[in-house]
Every structure is written in C-alpha cells, then in structure tokens.
Amino acid sequence: MTENDPSPAKPRPAAASPKLPWKTRISVAALSAVTDLCRRSNGSLNRSLLSLLDVRSPASATPVRGVRTADVTVDSSRNLWFRLFVPSSGESLPVIVFFHGGGFAFLSPDSRIYNAVCSRICRKTQALVLSVNYRRSPEHRYPAPYEDGADVLRFLDGNGLATADAAAAGLADLSSCFLAGDSAGANIVHHVGRRWAAGAWERIRLAGMVLIQPFFGGEERTEAEIRLAKAPLLSMERTDWMWRAFLPEGADRDHEAANPFGPRAEGELEAALPEAMVVVGGFDLLQDWQMRYYEGLRARGKAARLVEYPEAIHAFYFFPEIKESAIVLEEIKGFIDGLRVRSTTTEQKDGDAGDENQ
User: Fold this and answer.
1) What is the tens place of the pLDDT at every residue in 52-107?
2) In degrees rounded to 5, what are phi and psi of residue 187?
3) Is 310 in contact with 13 (CB distance < 8 Å)?
4) In sequence order, which ranges of 76-222 are alpha helices (DSSP H)?
5) What is the CA radius of gyration of the chain?
6) Where are the alpha helices (DSSP H) in 54-137?
7) Which residues, in sequence order, are CB contacts of 35 under 8 Å at separation 6+?
8) What is the pTM of this model?
9) Active-site residue list
C-alpha cells in the first residue's frame, strides 16, 4: 500500500499476463461472454437475454454465514431500491452505501456475484451494507445513477430505514457513513460524494469513500489502455461501448462524469468531501486513470490513500480464490475502523474543549 505519496509509482505487474487460477479463468470467460452477447452495436442492450444469463440470489431473512438480507424500496416508480446486509452481532454499526460495477449498464444488487461480494464486506467490516439498485444505461444515461445514489442518502437522512427495517435502523450509526463501490460503482461514489458534500443533511455524515478500481476515462489513450487493450473481463472495446451508452448524447470521454479532473471539469471540490481510499490493479487497463484520480485528489488538498495490487486484474475482488480478494477486505476494514476511531477522538476533544470553555 502507498499512502500520502503525491507521485506514486505505477503498479507494474511482474509478468506480461496475469497468472489466474483455472476457476477464475472460467468465471472471467463466462462474464465476458455474457457482456458481449448482450451488447448491441447500435448502443442498446438485450435486457431479456441478460435477465436469463444474470444469475440472481434472493434476499434471506434467515442469516446466511452470519448475515441476513432484505430488499428495501426507496422509489418504486423508478425501481430504486437497495439490498440491506445486516451482520448477526454488534451495535452502533457503521453504514456502507455500496454501488455495484458493471459499466453503468450491467448487474444489480441481487446478482449472485454482488450478493456474495456485499455479504463478504458485511462480515469483514461488521457494518450495515446497503447495495443500491440504481437506474442503468443505456435506458437511463448520466446523471441518473448519481441522482439515485443521492436520493438513497436522502432516504437515510429522512429516517426512512426506521420505517423499512426498525431492527437495522437501531444498529445504524449514520454519523459514520461510508460510500463504497467498484468500477462504475466507484465512479458513482465520487459523484454522489460531491452531491453530499454540497448539500445540507440532518443525520448523515460521510466519514470516507472507498473506490475499488474506479471506472474513469478520457479521450486520451493512456499507456495502460494501449498495453492492456485486450485485458481480461474489461477491454478497451468494452469500455468504449459503456461510455457511449452512459454519457449524454454527443458527449465524449472528457465529460466530467468520466474525467473528473479533465479539461471540462467544472468547479472546485467541496470542502466537506471526505477522505478516499483508491484501489488500483496492475492488470487493469484503467489504472492510469485511477492513479490520475488519486493524484488529482491529493493535488486539490484532499486526503487520499492508495492501495495497489500489481498482479490484480479488473474485478479481482469477485473471486475468493485470488489472494488479494481477502487482502483488500482487510484494507477496507482498516480504513473504516481508522476513520471511525479518528472521528470519535475528534468529537471527544471537541466536547472536552467545550466543557473547558463553559
């Protein structure tokens, strides 16, 4: 891990291609095939076929390996809901609002792969995890998922969880809330974080953001994009399709949604934007954009932590058989626990100072 370094070295892999377990190779090939089968050259998506191929996991009121799940509706008119993951033990738990990846177009909180990922995050961090079912492209382009993410925060801020799941609400510490996501979901984390930082809130306090291999880009073709153009799971041809399906009609990849610190970025980062943890993999063609994002935060005076895995492919955390999949969960836990301790210490100092001034 590299921390507090304004110009970190790129996470160069030691080998020319990733060494993946056979189980991972089969899974990556299957996921890639589903993506390619469902995408159409005209920019549309075959949702009917995708619904058949995307294996789903139902919510379970009975805990599975120490985690119970429930689906909570926020706005039925736009199918905005989240899957709630609740650990079997603990009290005053941090809250993680999670945004799944899939290039803004694929997958959902009840997709088997994300149900498993969020269950693992819940168990490891002992936090409430809310995995958001945001509107997807190409049917719903920018800024739909950012608006949906902000509305989930408003739902929590308005005490909506107490009505939906009183037991979970009784455990939730909304003063210690984190945004987390992977790939396109990590892109959403940044933009929803900015919306929170620019707003007024009663209950929710964002303590940090976790961006796992965030999906950023630009018109420039970076060295990593060229070198890893046919990388496993996420290739340059696939990313180009995803940006065309998501960005406003006529926009290019230098739009601020894709390139937050690029030539068309508007406005300074909000003062309240919390500390970020950015995860980068050496076999991810997006790594140069992810490093630029980390460096952009640092250059703008924002606290940021860089976590690098030189041998990791994009979405390595999907696969428990990859050793870094467990390691990154430890990093996320450490990041959340550290910020919670720091926040508690600061509040105690502020309280002591207030008592002395009375």
Assistant:
1) 999 999 999 999 999 999 999 999 999 999 999 999 988 899 999 999 999 999 99
2) -60, -45
3) yes
4) 112-125, 144-157, 160-164, 166-171, 184-197
5) 20
6) 112-125
7) 103, 106, 238
8) 0.93
9) 183, 284, 314
